[in-house]
Amino acid sequence: MPRPRKYRRVCCLPKVNEFGPLNKKESNNFVFMTVEEYETIRLMDLENLSQEETAERMGVARSTIQRIYEEARKKLADFIVNGKTLKIEGGDYRVCDFNVDNNRCSLCRRHGRMFGQEKD
Protein backbone atom coordinates (compact mmCIF):
# COMPACT_ATOMS: atom_id res chain seq x y z
CA MET A 1 0.00 0.00 0.00
CA PRO A 2 1.54 3.36 -1.01
CA ARG A 3 2.13 6.08 1.52
CA PRO A 4 -0.62 8.74 1.47
CA ARG A 5 0.37 12.06 -0.11
CA LYS A 6 1.20 14.86 2.26
CA TYR A 7 -0.89 18.02 1.88
CA ARG A 8 1.08 21.13 0.97
CA ARG A 9 0.23 24.39 2.71
CA VAL A 10 -0.59 27.33 0.48
CA CYS A 11 -1.25 30.87 1.68
CA CYS A 12 -3.98 31.75 -0.78
CA LEU A 13 -5.63 30.59 -3.94
CA PRO A 14 -4.92 32.48 -7.17
CA LYS A 15 -7.18 35.44 -7.95
CA VAL A 16 -7.25 34.34 -11.58
CA ASN A 17 -6.92 30.67 -12.46
CA GLU A 18 -7.00 30.71 -16.27
CA PHE A 19 -4.64 32.46 -18.69
CA GLY A 20 -4.36 32.24 -22.45
CA PRO A 21 -3.46 33.92 -25.70
CA LEU A 22 -5.59 36.91 -26.65
CA ASN A 23 -5.51 36.24 -30.40
CA LYS A 24 -7.18 32.80 -30.27
CA LYS A 25 -10.94 32.46 -30.06
CA GLU A 26 -11.00 28.88 -28.82
CA SER A 27 -8.22 26.70 -27.56
CA ASN A 28 -8.22 23.00 -26.87
CA ASN A 29 -4.56 23.08 -25.90
CA PHE A 30 -4.41 23.30 -22.13
CA VAL A 31 -1.61 23.18 -19.61
CA PHE A 32 -2.81 22.31 -16.11
CA MET A 33 -0.82 23.65 -13.16
CA THR A 34 -1.65 22.53 -9.63
CA VAL A 35 -2.23 25.02 -6.84
CA GLU A 36 0.97 23.90 -5.08
CA GLU A 37 2.97 24.50 -8.29
CA TYR A 38 1.45 27.99 -8.44
CA GLU A 39 2.36 28.59 -4.76
CA THR A 40 5.94 27.42 -5.34
CA ILE A 41 6.36 29.85 -8.26
CA ARG A 42 4.79 32.64 -6.17
CA LEU A 43 7.06 32.07 -3.19
CA MET A 44 10.32 31.46 -5.05
CA ASP A 45 10.02 33.86 -7.97
CA LEU A 46 7.76 36.62 -6.66
CA GLU A 47 8.70 36.64 -2.96
CA ASN A 48 12.35 35.62 -3.65
CA LEU A 49 12.39 32.83 -1.07
CA SER A 50 14.93 30.01 -1.24
CA GLN A 51 13.93 26.39 -1.73
CA GLU A 52 14.49 25.81 1.98
CA GLU A 53 12.27 28.73 3.01
CA THR A 54 9.59 27.69 0.53
CA ALA A 55 9.69 24.11 1.79
CA GLU A 56 9.29 25.32 5.38
CA ARG A 57 6.29 27.49 4.50
CA MET A 58 4.61 24.71 2.55
CA GLY A 59 5.40 22.01 5.11
CA VAL A 60 7.31 19.63 2.82
CA ALA A 61 10.92 18.60 2.15
CA ARG A 62 13.26 20.77 0.08
CA SER A 63 13.61 17.96 -2.49
CA THR A 64 9.82 17.97 -2.94
CA ILE A 65 9.88 21.74 -3.58
CA GLN A 66 12.66 21.28 -6.12
CA ARG A 67 10.59 18.69 -8.00
CA ILE A 68 7.40 20.83 -7.85
CA TYR A 69 9.31 23.91 -9.04
CA GLU A 70 10.86 22.08 -12.00
CA GLU A 71 7.44 20.80 -13.10
CA ALA A 72 5.90 24.27 -12.75
CA ARG A 73 8.67 25.85 -14.85
CA LYS A 74 8.18 23.27 -17.63
CA LYS A 75 4.46 23.99 -17.65
CA LEU A 76 5.03 27.78 -17.77
CA ALA A 77 7.46 27.35 -20.68
CA ASP A 78 4.97 25.15 -22.57
CA PHE A 79 2.22 27.71 -21.95
CA ILE A 80 4.31 30.68 -23.17
CA VAL A 81 6.23 29.10 -26.04
CA ASN A 82 3.41 27.05 -27.52
CA GLY A 83 0.59 29.56 -26.96
CA LYS A 84 -1.52 27.22 -24.85
CA THR A 85 -4.11 28.07 -22.21
CA LEU A 86 -2.89 27.71 -18.60
CA LYS A 87 -5.36 26.53 -15.97
CA ILE A 88 -4.50 26.46 -12.26
CA GLU A 89 -6.52 23.84 -10.41
CA GLY A 90 -6.34 20.74 -8.26
CA GLY A 91 -3.52 19.23 -6.28
CA ASP A 92 -2.90 18.08 -2.72
CA TYR A 93 -3.03 21.26 -0.67
CA ARG A 94 -4.64 23.02 2.24
CA VAL A 95 -5.05 26.77 2.49
CA CYS A 96 -3.28 28.01 5.62
CA ASP A 97 -5.27 29.39 8.53
CA PHE A 98 -6.31 33.00 8.47
CA ASN A 99 -6.72 34.53 11.90
CA VAL A 100 -9.71 36.83 11.64
CA ASP A 101 -9.02 38.38 15.06
CA ASN A 102 -5.76 40.04 14.07
CA ASN A 103 -6.29 40.03 10.27
CA ARG A 104 -3.17 37.93 9.61
CA CYS A 105 -2.29 34.66 7.97
CA SER A 106 -0.79 32.48 10.71
CA LEU A 107 1.76 30.83 8.41
CA CYS A 108 3.09 33.52 6.14
CA ARG A 109 2.02 36.55 8.16
CA ARG A 110 0.49 38.24 5.11
CA HIS A 111 -1.94 40.97 6.12
CA GLY A 112 -5.48 41.20 4.91
CA ARG A 113 -5.44 38.35 2.43
CA MET A 114 -7.73 35.41 2.45
CA PHE A 115 -8.06 33.02 -0.43
CA GLY A 116 -6.32 35.46 -2.76
CA GLN A 117 -8.56 38.43 -1.98
CA GLU A 118 -7.92 41.66 -0.15
CA LYS A 119 -9.91 42.17 3.03
CA ASP A 120 -11.14 45.63 3.91
Distance between the termini: 47 Å
Number of strand elements? 9
Number of domains: 1
Element string (H = helix, E = strand): EEEHHHEEEEEE
Enumerate how many helices there are, as a single number: 3
Please estimate the helix content.
25-40%
Shape: globular
Low-pLDDT segments, ≥5 res: 111-120
Mean pLDDT reading: 81
Report the sheet-strand fraction. 15-25%
Largest sheet: 3 strands, mixed
Structural class: alpha/beta
What is the strand arrangement across the widest sheet?
A: 2-4-3
User: Rg from C-alpha positions?
Assistant: 15 Å
Family: Belongs to the UPF0251 family.
Protein name: UPF0251 protein SAMN02746091_02592
Domain HTH cro/C1-type: 48-68
Keywords: DNA-binding
Textual characterization of the structure:
The protein has 120 residues and is an alpha/beta fold. It has one domain (8-12, 30-118). Helix content is 33%, strand content 20%. It has a 3-stranded mixed beta sheet. A two-stranded parallel ribbon has the order 1-5. A two-stranded antiparallel ribbon has the order 6-7. Strand 6 (98-99) and strand 7 (104-105) form a beta hairpin. Helix 1 (35-46) packs across helix 3 and helix 2 (51-58) crosses helix 3. Residues 111-120 have low confidence and may be disordered.
